[in-house]
Specification:
This protein has 349 residues and is of the alpha/beta class. The chain contains 10 helices and 15 strands. Strands 3, 4, 5, 6, 7, 14 and 15 form a 7-stranded mixed sheet that branches.
Length: 349
C-alpha cells in the first residue's frame, strides 16, 4: 500500500509518497480501506516540527479518514465487514489502509460520501466542543470566529446558524464575499492589528458574546478585548507560528513571546466578567464517551442535510505538498481532502 510520510522537519519537500506493508488489525481493531483523508493544520505543524504531540519522524500524518471496512481483528464482529465508516486516528491517516480501535470507528450513512465523512470529524468536533460545550452559543448570541473561511470556521458558522446565534468573522479580503453569502454579518481583515476596535465599532461598542481564536500570540488580547461583558474567549490553535515558507522555530518563539501571560490572570477575568477556555481535540483521546456522542449527533445533522462540510479541494496523496501549502498559505476556503491516487485500486464515492 501507499502512504504519505513526513521524513524530516521543514518544507513540503519533506512529504514523500512511499510503499508500506499492509497493517493487520490487532485484537479489538478494525482495518479500513481508506477512500479519503482529512488535512488539518496539526499536520502542517507536525511537518514543521512545531506540534508537541507528534510522533517521532519519519511518521505518517492524518487525524481522520473515511472508507470501507475490509478486515477485523479478534473480538470484533464480522458485521463491520464492507460497511462504510469514518474514523479518528492519532496520526497515520494519509494511508491507503489503517487499523484502528473499534471505539474510534463510526458507521457512515450510505448517503454520506467518503469525502464528506473525512471532512467532518476534526473540524466539526472542534466546533462542537467550542460552541456546544465550552462556550454554548444560544439564540441571539453574537459569535466572532477568526479564520472564518477555514474548515473549523465553516463548521462554526453552520452550528451557530442551527442555534440561532449570529456570526461575525475574520478572513483575508479575497474570502469576504463568500463569507457574507453565508450570512456572516460583519467580515474583517484577519491581518489588521486593531481588530478589537473594528469589532466594537461594528457592534455599536457592545462587543461579542463569544470569540473563537486559533492564531494565538498577540491575537489573544485582540479577541479578548472584542468581548462584551459576560463574554467567553475560546483558544483552539497556534496557527500564527506557521505562516508560510518562513515558518519554524523562530516564528513559534515569536508567537509564544507575544502571548499575554500576565495580562489574562484570574483577577482580571473576574473583574472584567469574562471567561477563558481552551480546546485541543488531540488531547481528547481518553474521552471517547464524550466525543463518540458528539460524532453521532453530528452524523444525524449531516445525514439530514442540516450541516454540510464545505470542500476546498480534493487532491491525490501524491499532491500532499500542495494540500499542505493551501492551509499553510491560507488559500483554502473550507476543507482540503486527500484521496488515494487514481489507479491504486481505491474508488472514492
Amino acid at each position: 500500500m501507499k502512504q504519505v510520510m513526513i521524513v524530516g522537519k521543514g518544507g513540503v519537500g519533506n512529504l514523500e509518497l512511499r510503499e508500506a506493508p499492509l497493517p493487520l488489525p490487532g485484537p479489538g481493531q478494525i482495518r479500513i480501506k481508506v477512500q479519503a483523508a482529512g488535512v488539518n493544520f496539526a499536520d502542517v505543524m507536525m511537518r514543521l516540527g512545531l506540534y508537541p504531540d507528534a510522533p517521532k519522524l519519519p511518521a505518517v500524518p492524518g487525524y481522520e479518514v473515511a472508507g470501507v471496512v475490509d478486515m477485523v481483528g479478534s473480538g470484533v464482529s464480522s458485521d463491520w465487514l464492507e460497511k462504510p465508516v469514518l474514523a479518528m486516528c492519532n496520526f497515520g491517516g494519509y494511508s491507503e489502509y489503517v487499523s484502528l480501535d473499534e471505539a474510534l470507528v463510526h458507521l457512515r450513512p450510505a448517503q454520506v460520501s467518503a469525502v464528506q465523512g473525512a471532512a467532518l470529524l476534526v473540524n466539526y468536533l472542534t466546533a462542537w466542543q467550542m460552541v456546544r460545550v465550552m462556550a454554548p452559543a444560544i439564540e441571539g448570541d453574537l459569535v466572532l470566529i477568526q479564520s472564518a473561511a477555514g474548515g473549523v470556521g465553516q463548521a462554526v458558522i453552520q452550528l451557530c446558524a442551527l442555534s440561532g446565534a449570529r456570526v461575525v468573522g475574520s478572513a483575508s479580503p479575497s474570502k469576504h464575499d463568500f463569507l457574507r453569502e453565508q450570512g456572516v454579518e460583519f467580515v474583517f481583515d484577519s491581518r489588521r492589528r486593531d481588530f478589537a476596535t473594528a469589532v466594537r465599532a461594528a457592534t455599536g461598542g457592545r462587543g461579542v458574546d463569544i470569540a473563537l481564536e486559533p492564531r494565538n500570540g498577540p491575537w489573544i488580547m485582540e479577541s479578548y478585548n472584542s468581548l462584551a461583558k459576560c463574554g467567553r474567549l475560546v483558544l483552539f490553535g497556534f496557527s500564527n507560528a506557521a505562516s508560510g515558507s518562513g515558518s519554524g522555530v523562530i516564528s513559534s518563539l515569536k508567537t509564544l513571546a507575544a502571548v499575554p501571560w500576565l495580562k489574562l490572570n484570574p483577577i482580571r477575568l473576574m473583574n472584567d466578567n469574562k471567561s477563558l477556555a481552551g480546546v485541543n481535540l488531540g488531547r481528547m483521546w481518553d474521552m471517547g464517551h464524550k466525543t463518540g456522542k458528539w460524532v453521532e449527533d453530528l452524523l444525524v445533522l449531516l445525514e439530514s442535510g442540516k450541516i454540510n462540510p464545505v470542500i476546498d479541494a480534493v487532491l491525490p496523496f501524491s499532491s500532499a505538498g500542495e494540500a499542505h501549502q493551501r492551509l499553510e498559505n491560507r488559500l483554502n476556503v473550507g476543507k482540503v481532502i486527500l484521496v488515494p491516487d487514481a489507479g491504486d485500486g481505491v474508488s472514492v464515492p
